[in-house]
Design goal:
The protein has 325 residues and is an alpha/beta fold. It has 14 helices and ten strands. Helix 11 packs antiparallel against helix 12. It starts with a helix and ends with a helix. The structure holds flavin mononucleotide (FMN).
């Protein structure tokens, strides 16, 4: 399939695996890229820029296809050395970067000097327009369905995508709530040039997370996530386990929520332990409502092929069938 995004990403299929903290390692990124989609390493999963440079090299040894690196730029009391991470990505010969969080404008000259394409992930059309004005090559739009940070607008992809199509000249990916080929066909119908998936790629053979996590995803339904941290304006969709329930309980207490009271429960390091040990109640971990559409743990190759087949069938049989009646 050819779209503006397959051209930009240099892939066979219009499918990207978005950056995932603690999950986006070379095993997954290379498997997705080898399957003809775009795999992504997560920059900040590596403790230092030097470690990221090594991980990029490891991924290059595992695939000769293009892959991206995600750089999530968030305000922090002691921020990671973002410039050095960006430098490691550019100097590692990576040709596609997925930026998220802050507008990537300050980094654009450096990325473009290295001949890189920038896909900025955002959660609102106004942010997508400002990223376009900053010179990014494409955007990826996360609807409220998505895992992780959906922003505070609560708009679904059914609205976001046609609004983005109207407002943008650059190509864009639909992201959030997509797990099969019907979703890809719908995203294309709504004006997107392809899809970005996180949660669905986590329940694959190659994803470097404990089997308990993958099985929990198969067993879960679309009702098993929760929006936490809404009260502190930093909404995050996570798997609804006992730690998430505790956070919701604190947030429901009368008066303003102090982030300090949530901090011990929401620490990213605790989520990492869930992924590594399979202790499902150790911390909060991110997942989207697309859990409702996850029934198995295929390889990335099987998943990508299935999605393309379903998309093809949806367009050629179901949709054209309706027209020819
Ligand atoms: C476990 C996990 C960790 C994630 N970490 C990040 C991250 O560090 N940076 C980022 O930009 N997006 C992150 N995301 C969001 C994904 O890149 C993607 O935008 C999102 O998962 C799309 O929604 P979906 O899960 O419904 O497919 C994460 C998603 C998951 C499931």
């Amino acid at each position: 399939m050819k779209t503006r995004m397959t051209e930009l990403m240099g892939t066979e299929y219009p499918i990207m695996q978005g950056g995932m903290q603690w999950v986006g390692r070379a095993e997954l990124a290379s498997a997705v890229s080898n399957a003809g989609a775009l795999g992504t390493l997560t920059g900040l999963t590596q403790p230092t820029p030097e470690d990221l440079a090594k991980e990029i090299k490891r991924c290059q040894d595992m695939t000769d296809k293009p892959f991206a690196v995600n750089l999530t730029i968030l305000p922090a009391i002691t921020p990671p050395p973002y410039e050095e991470y960006a430098q490691a990505i550019a100097e590692g010969g990576v040709k596609i970067i997925e930026t998220a969080g802050r507008n990537p404008k300050p980094f654009m000259p450096m990325f473009h000097e290295h001949g890189m394409k920038v896909i900025h992930k955002c959660t609102a059309v106004r942010h997508a327009v400002s990223a376009q004005n900053a010179g990014v090559d494409a955007v990826s739009i996360d609807g409220v369905e998505c895992a992780g940070h959906p922003g505070e607008d609560n708009i679904t992809n059914f609205l976001l995508l046609p609004l983005a199509a109207k407002a943008l000249d650059i190509p864009f990916l639909a992201s959030g709530g997509i797990g099969n080929g019907q979703g890809l066909a719908a995203a294309l119908a709504l004006g997107a040039d392809g899809i970005n998936m996180g949660t669905r790629f986590m329940a694959t053979k190659e994803a470097p997370v404990h089997d308990n996590v993958k099985q929990a995803m198969v067993d879960a339904s679309e009702l098993d996530t929760a929006h936490i941290m809404k009260t502190v304006n930093n909404t995050m969709r996570v798997f609804k386990n006992s730690v998430a329930e505790k956070v919701l309980e604190i947030e429901a207490e009368p008066g303003e929520t102090e982030f300090e009271n949530l901090r011990p429960y929401v620490a990213g390091a605790r989520g990492r332990v869930v992924f590594e040990t399979g202790d499902m109640e150790h911390g909060v971990w991110t997942a989207g409502i697309v859990l409702g559409l996850i029934y198995d743990i295929p390889s990335c190759e099987e998943l990508v092929q299935r999605i393309m087949q379903e998309c093809n069938d949806t367009i050629t049989s179901r949709l054209s069938g309706l027209l020819s009646q």
